[in-house]
Structure to design on (550 residues):
């Protein structure tokens, strides 16, 4: 019995995105599709113990959900005829319902439509994230709410509003045409990377790593590569997430942050690194560059350095310069300055950071990076002050503890220790 | 689905320059002609500037009349289109082509679906 439950659960995790995508296309409604899928899974828990588990459980669920949709459609239509015709949400879908009732594997893969609809720019970012995770991801509403520190009613409300907007403003359920594809794909990539980052360094809450979200973002990244294999940036994004996530185990020890330099590199996930590097190699040949690929290359340089001293900071600085050309943001300039500090010396890094003070004064990593360079130059009062600023601005408690620890160390230790080599916080995640 | 496209402009003394004004007029004409040809144009009209606006608010069953728009905003309603589009993406495409600087400098277009009057049933 529990076996059936866990089997249904794994079918849900693995296949619900694909199942729901088909059902939404057929029914023209997120709600009806969800309801039908829910009913089908419930039916599975009754039927499978009695009649045995079908050879293709996902197909069984889809076909059953499909039938439920047809039944619901018939009920609605009878109802409508009786009530002297109320305009039905999606008229055109009615014909699709009565037609084919094929096996799951013959259904076209509708996940691409679904992902573009969920990440439509007419929805706000929170709604995009929630909807993508809820429909394409294998997480339950409870899990998503917990990961984003929201109450379940708040998340449910967000989802209801988003679905209502899709329905009422008629956000299309289709893959955008070639003239819009790049721009809309960028929005999808942003949502996936946002989910990853939320998991990688939660902006609030106790745990530093929310592995569930990282795993989910990587899974979505894989889906995107599978569905749009011609876009090199999809692979760049996947490689970036794999390479960053390969360090997740080494990043935290006893609840405290461990900098890149201090990490035990034997804990890094070699399989993830190998996969990330292979992906990068494959896409760099066709030469269709983009910002995710550049970031992945930075992550690759870290991953390839056997010791922290081996890190090729000069090349990392160059990559940040390229990245800055894609996106002239002061945060990227800060990362560039930090890499320059590692290759050309802390003074040069500080000089570049001074130029960024106006735009980054409220950004904790700006002060953390400066603090670190002051520390390495033995300029203790300035280091302590910068650590203070950083600790006051940071929201993640684990990171705050790390900064405070560094500050206390500065206050206690003698100046001679100031030349201890270390990497700027900006690059140490 | 019918969508109303609300044109928000930044009103300024004297409005746009004559050349700019002529460009805006042409751009409107192109959108109006194209949408009419496709049979999706339901309405399009400019509004007089907010200096001509009167706001009526009923308080204690009596209309309270005030001069000007109901709220001071950075951008002011200047006109509208009603287009019958397949979906929001089509509406966005048209909206991107509607000029918004008619009363001074460029503002934005707000797209709102028009669900129709609620039925009693």
């Amino acid at each position: 019995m529990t076996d059936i439950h866990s089997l249904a659960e794994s079918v849900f995790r693995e296949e619900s995105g694909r199942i729901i995508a088909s059902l939404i296309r057929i029914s023209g409604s997120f709600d009806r599709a969800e309801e039908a899928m829910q009913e089908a899974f419930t039916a599975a828990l009754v039927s499978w113990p009695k009649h045995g588990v079908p050879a293709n459980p996902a197909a069984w669920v889809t076909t059953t959900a499909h039938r439920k949709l047809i039944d619901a459609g018939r009920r609605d239509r009878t109802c409508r005829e009786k009530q002297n015709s109320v305009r039905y949400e999606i008229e055109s879908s009615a014909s699709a319902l009565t037609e084919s009732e094929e096996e799951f594997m013959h259904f076209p893969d509708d996940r691409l439509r679904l992902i573009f609809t969920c990440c439509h720019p007419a929805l706000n970012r929170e709604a995009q994230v929630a909807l993508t995770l809820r429909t394409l991801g294998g997480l339950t509403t409870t899990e998503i709410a917990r990961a984003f520190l929201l109450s379940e009613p708040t998340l449910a409300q967000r989802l209801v509003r988003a679905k209502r907007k899709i329905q009422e403003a008629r956000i299309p359920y289709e893959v955008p045409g070639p003239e819009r594809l790049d721009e809309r794909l960028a929005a999808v990539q942003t949502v996936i990377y946002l989910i990853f980052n939320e998991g990688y360094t939660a902006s609030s809450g106790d745990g530093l790593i929310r592995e569930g979200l990282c795993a989910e973002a990587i899974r979505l990244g894989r889906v995107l590569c599978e569905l749009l294999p011609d876009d090199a940036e999809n692979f760049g994004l996947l490689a970036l997430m794999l390479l960053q996530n390969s360090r997740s185990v080494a990043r935290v020890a006893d609840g405290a942050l461990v900098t890149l330099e201090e990490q035990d590199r034997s804990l890094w996930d070699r399989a993830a690194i190998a996969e990330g590097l292979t992906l990068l190699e494959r896409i760099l040949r066709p030469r269709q560059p983009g910002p995710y690929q550049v970031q992945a290359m930075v992550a690759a340089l870290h991953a390839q350095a056997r010791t922290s001293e081996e890190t090729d900071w000069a090349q990392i600085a160059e990559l940040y310069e390229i990245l800055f050309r894609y996106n002239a943001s002061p945060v990227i300039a800060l990362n560039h300055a930090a890499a320059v500090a590692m290759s050309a010396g802390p003074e040069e890094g500080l000089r570049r950071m001074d130029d960024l003070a106006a735009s980054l004064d409220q950004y904790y990593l700006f002060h953390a990076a400066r603090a670190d360079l002051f520390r390495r130059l033995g300029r203790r009062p300035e280091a302590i002050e910068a650590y203070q600023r950083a600790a006051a601005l940071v929201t993640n408690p684990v990171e705050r503890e790390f900064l405070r620890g560094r500050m206390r160390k500065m206050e206690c230790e003698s100046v001679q220790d100031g030349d201890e080599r270390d990497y700027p916080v900006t690059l140490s995640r | 689905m019918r969508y109303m496209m609300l044109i928000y402009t930044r009103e300024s003394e004297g409005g746009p320059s004559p050349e700019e004004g002529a460009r805006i007029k042409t751009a409107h004409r192109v959108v109006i002609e194209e949408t009419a040809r496709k049979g999706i144009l339901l309405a399009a009209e400019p509004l007089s500037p907010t200096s001509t606006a009167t706001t009526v608010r009923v308080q204690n069953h009596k209309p309270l009349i005030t001069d000007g728009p109901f709220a001071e905003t950075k951008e002011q309603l200047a006109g509208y289109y009603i287009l019958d589009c397949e979906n929001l993406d089509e509406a966005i495409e048209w909206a991107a082509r509607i000029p918004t600087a008619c009363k001074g400098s460029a503002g934005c277009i707000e797209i709102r679906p028009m669900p129709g009057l609620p039925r009693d049933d």
